[in-house]
Amino acid sequence: MSRPIRQVMVAVLALQCVANAQAADLVVSAAASLTNACTDIGKEFEQAHPGTKVVLNFAGSGQLLQQIAKGAPVDVFASADQETMDQAQSQGLIDPASRYNFVSNALVVVVPKLFRLELSSLRQLKSAEIRHIAIGNPDSVPAGRYSKSVLVASGQWDTLAPKLINTQNVRQSLDYVARGEVEAAFVYRTDAAILSDKVRIALEVPSVTPVLYPIATVKGANNKAQAKGFTDFVRSDAARKIFRTYGFGRS
What contacts 25, CB < 8 A, 6 or more positions away? Predict the structure, then answer.
């Protein structure tokens, strides 16, 4: 299956997830890099609130914002950067008073587990051994924006542009490396840990701006009380323990 076809299928499945949610369900749209942690937190929240069903929708932050802007029935929004949440706030889509940063992350470059080349700087990405580099689309994916800012600041953006393969979210970039379809990818440290048997961190990449994740309730939420309960729960010790388990830092 080609990359474009897979990208379309992922987008369709995400929309179906939201569309199939019942009115009584609590719908949480969260950045793709939060998939594992928020899945566990959703289960913990359901156990603490009998009768509540949490429907989780994961995708690139920009894609999630577009869904909310088009009227998707979302109660809580968690993005992987400030810019996307700023856009949501400026469009009047979230309750500003409910917004806060809840975890931090770090940007890294990963390569296939058995890849021979050792990297000590971004300049080595110019190596002939690295033909393709997966990067989230900077126009809609926070990891892509973080990555682009780093490459621009280091003077490598124009040089590496022919090698860059845009993806719809950071997990797609990770999958491309795990399947050997690209030789390198910019992802988060927490993503690399998920597939440590197939990829390895080749380079730590200090981002120009801190990688901080904000969360907020959506103004058009069908379940405002439950939405507030969920955002409050994300601050709890139980939730923080889960985030630590998956390698997220404090905000």
Answer: 53, 54, 55, 223
pTM listed for this prediction: 0.89
Centre a 10 Å sphere on the Cβ of residue 198 and count the other Cβ atoms it contains.
Answer: 17
The partner residues of 57 in beta bridges, in order of sequence, read: 29
Query: Structural domains in the chain?
Result: 3-104+210-245 (3.40.190.10), 107-205 (3.40.190.10)
> What letters, b where the CB count within 10 A reaches 16 and e where it falls short, cover 41-54?
bbebbeeeeeebeb
Residue 237 three-state SS? helix
**CB distance 159 to 126 below 8 Å:** yes
Type of residue found at 49: H
Token code pair at residue 210: 């801190």
Using the predicted structure, report yes or no on whether residue 27 has a pLDDT greater than 80.
Answer: yes
For residue 94, which phi and psi values (nearest 5 degrees)? -125, 165
d(CA 54, CA 27): 6
Helix (H, G, I), strand (E, B) or coil at 73: coil
Judging by DSSP bridges, how do beta strands 211-217 and 184-188 pair with one another? unpaired
On the question of pLDDT at 15 being above 60, the answer is no
Structure tokens at 211: 């990688």
